[in-house]
Design a protein that fits this description.
alpha/beta, 7-stranded parallel beta sheet, 17 strands, elongated
């Protein structure tokens, strides 16, 4: 399913009206009906307060008020503005509502008594809001949020930017949001996602060819799409058919990152996994692995990789490997910086770069432009801030990355021709072709040490099995989050650790195929 900006949705609306001949009032009627049906689904009767703005969102609200009154609800509509400033369609709906004897008041504010024991329909703003709300509306929104009344928002919670999810001064916190045609970015991005409540995307008659247009470049990940990318296993096959992944990871004090990455890689279907480890730590690894293999590599005598390991790495890659993951737990030193740079510039197989691999590249990110093979990079916001600041000669902090969770990975992806997985809530995948994917799985329990190492192993596994790096990233991110959701059902979010994700991977694959 596509995710759109307010401008993209306006264009869909305009083309539906002008090119396909669907009158705007019919779209408004269907929008109002879909909201009314959701209200009736959750509440069979009661007092309804519909708060309407002066634009078309307010017109939708007046349709809801009329329909619910027809169905026997006790309805009152409050128009927050002056009568002479209604949009054309909102004014028509106001006149229709009056003809149906719907109680409608024009007021600049409301009383707490208006909200007492009421179901609130939020039709104040639609998706076009792009400036902070006024002081009197902040007071009204605070009153609504403190009322403990259930709230249905029409299209998007009023006060939320449909494009960024930003709270524009203040916003209504909905229990349910009913939007039309396609979800908006503000429904998915935080903090807007926290204000949307349970989101319903309703069909009100937009042409499918507009909703599925290739011009819409942001996709919301769904189970059916991910399942379509998983190749069924042939009965006549062997481990060599499912890829050999080399994971260059670990250093003194950080061996767990390598082990979790490798175990996740195997659990995601890789036929063979070899962990390239600093040779001084080989005994530590040998005592903790079973299915994985190890490749001892020259280190600096302090438990970190040496640049002198390059010949061994490339000899191994050229003979046996389908994908390379590098970075979990390797630390940052002059040697790791040179090692990662040379692997990027020389590797004949796809690379997945994470954690200290990214931090090592941040010293000279232009090495990415010399990559011989495709690259997937998986930064968290802190790593992205360091890398992005260096690439574009800016000063970016983690908070700046969070404010532009779609645009920043897309720009980095375009700059270097790589696939970028920006981890977080939600995780976003950007391709060098301009495509963006927003993940829908995962939960706060995954905010724990090692979770990113598990994701790297999953993505590397899919690349090793033959998926192109973009599809491997999409699959890896979705399944990683799904495993987290299934783990949270067993462990609870507070008690989850990264190894719980690995243990839940078999359940995630079974869920996908069910």
């Amino acid at each position: 399913m596509k995710v759109v900006t307010s401008d993209e949705m306006r264009q869909i609306d305009k083309l539906t009206i002008e090119q396909y001949g669907v009158p705007s009032l019919i779209l408004m009627e269907r929008a109002g009906l879909s909201v009314a049906q959701k209200v009736r689904e959750f509440y069979k009767g009661g007092k309804i307060i519909v708060l309407c703005g002066k634009g078309n969102n307010g017109g939708d609200g007046l349709v809801v008020a009329r329909i619910l009154q027809n169905w026997g609800y006790r309805v009152k509509a409050i128009l927050l503005g002056e009568k002479g400033f209604l949009s054309h369609d909102c004014d028509i709906q106001y006149k229709i509502a009056k003809n149906f004897n719907v109680p409608v008041e024009f007021k600049s504010t409301i009383n707490p008594s208006d909200l007492h024991s009421a179901i609130i329909i939020d039709a104040v703003f639609g998706t076009g809001l792009n400036k902070p709300v006024s002081e009197n509306l902040i007071e009204i929104f605070d009153m609504i949020n403190s009322s403990n009344s259930p709230v249905f928002s029409i299209d998007i919670a009023s006060g939320i930017s449909a494009d960024t999810g930003e709270v524009l001064g203040a916003a209504i916190k909905a229990d349910y949001t009913v939007t039309f045609g396609l979800p908006k970015r503000g429904h998915i991005l935080y903090p807007g996602a926290d204000y949307s409540g349970k989101l319903f995307v309703e069909d009100i008659g937009f042409p499918p060819q507009l909703l599925n247009s290739e011009k819409l470049k942001v996709e919301l990940l769904q189970k059916s799409f991910v399942l379509s990318l998983i190749k069924p296993r042939q009965r006549y096959s062997h481990k060599g058919d499912y890829g050999h992944v080399l994971i260059i990871a670990g250093s003194k004090g950080k061996t767990g990152a390598a082990l979790m990455c490798a175990k996740a890689c195997l659990r995601s279907g890789a036929g063979l996994v070899t962990i390239g480890v600093p040779e001084s730590l080989i005994d530590v690894f040998q005592g903790r692995i079973t299915e994985e293999m190890t490749l001892p590599l020259k280190d600096d005598g302090k438990g970190m990789f040496s640049i002198n390991a390059l010949d061994e790495i490339f000899s191994f890659i050229s003979d046996k490997v389908d994908a390379v993951a590098i970075g979990p737990g390797i630390g940052v030193s002059p040697d790791t910086e040179m090692l990662v740079a040379e692997i990027v510039k020389t590797s004949p197989v796809p690379l997945i770069i994470d954690a200290d691999g990214i931090n090592s590249l941040s010293q000279n990110p232009d090495n990415l432009k010399q990559a011989k093979s495709s690259v997937v990079m998986t930064p968290h916001p802190g790593e992205m801030a360091r890398l992005y600041s260096r690439v574009f000669n800016l000063v970016y902090k983690t908070a700046d990355i969070e404010k532009d969770r779609l645009g920043i990975p897309l720009r980095l992806s375009s700059e270097f021709g790589i696939n970028v997985v920006l981890k977080g809530a939600p995780t976003v995948i950007a391709s060098p072709f301009g495509d963006l994917f927003i993940n829908t799985t995962g939960n706060p329990g995954m905010a724990t040490a090692g979770s990113g190492d598990v994701l790297t192993g999953i993505i590397a596994s899919f690349v090793g099995q033959g998926l192109n790096p973009l599809n491997a990233s999409v699959n890896g991110v979705y399944i990683h989050g799904l495993a987290g959701d299934l783990a949270s059902e067993k462990k609870g979010e507070n008690s989850m650790i990264a190894s719980d994700l690995i243990e839940s991977l078999p359940d995630a694959f079974r869920y996908l195929s069910s």
